[in-house]
Amino acid sequence: MTFETLRAALADVVAIPVTPFAEDGRVDSAAHRALLHRLLDGGVRTLTPNGNTGEFYALTPDERRAVTEATVAEAADRAAILVGVGHDLPTAVEAARHARDTGAHMVMVHQPVHPYVSESGWVDYHRAIADAVPELGVVPYVRNPLLSGERLAELGAACPNVVGVKYAVPDAARFAGFARDAGLDRFVWVAGLAEPYAPSYFSAGATGFTSGLVNVAPALSLEMLAALRAGDYGTAMKVWERIRRFEELRAANGNADNVTVVKEALASLGLCRRDIRPPSRELPEDARAEVAAIAGGWPI
After folding, report:
1. Which residues are listed as membrane-spanning (predicted)?
2. Is the pLDDT of residue 140 over 90?
3. How far is CA 201 from CA 49, 121, 206, in A?
4. Which residue from 101, 124, 184, 239 puts its CA 20 to 30 A from 26's CA?
C-alpha cells in the first residue's frame, strides 16, 4: 500500500479487535479468527492487532507476535493492518520489524510507559521506530496532554512515513489546537477515544476514529462514520445516544472495565469467552445482565 492508501485507511473506523482466551488461559486462535472475519464481513477495513482493547500489555511477546501473524494471515487481503507496538525502544523496534516482515501495513506506537517523558525524548523514541521501518506507515498514539503540536510537526518533518495520529487526550479544544500546531493536513487525525468523542473531534478536524465497540456491533460504528463523513451530526448523535450507556460502563472508574465490558457483550452473544487477564477483571454477576441487554438490542 502507498502512504496515500494508508492515509485513506486511517480515515475510517479503526477497529481494535479483542484477544479472546481459551479455558486454559491461552489465546483462543479459532475464536480470534472468527471474530476477525465477523469484523471484515461487517464492513470493517482497518484492524489494529495488539491495541489496548486487545490487551496489549497483558500479552507475552510471543503472543503479540502470534496475534500479529494471525491477523495478517486472515485479513491482510481485505483490510489495512495497523499493528500496535511499544514498551522499551528495542522491543518496539523489533515488533515493528516483525510487523513489516509479516506483511502488515502500518504500526501504531503505544504511548511510552515511563515515569519521565520529555517532549524531545518522545520525538527521539518515535523517530527511531519510524526510521527502522521506512516502508511502513507509522501512527503515534498520543495520550499525553503535555505534548505540544510543534513536537509532532518536528517528527513529521523528519519521518515522512508518520502518516497519522491517534489522538486520545479527552479535550476537544486541546485537540483542535494540537492538530493545527502540528499540521492539520500533514497527518490523518484519528479520534483515539472512540465513538463517544468522535463527533466533537470530527468537528475539529478528525476524519477517523478508533473503536472497541465495533467488535460487538460493527453496523453502529459504520453508521456513525457515514453520518460524520456527511456532516450529519444529528444522525451521529442518535448513534451516540444508543451506545452511551455501554461506553459509560467501559469508562467508569478510570476505564477499569474498558475491555471487560466488550468481552462480556461478546460472551453474551456466544462469540467468545468473557475471560480477561489481570490487572483487568471480569464483571460481577449483577452487571452482566445490563451489558447483555444492551448488546442484545443492537444490530449484529
Report:
1. none
2. yes
3. 24, 27, 5
4. 101
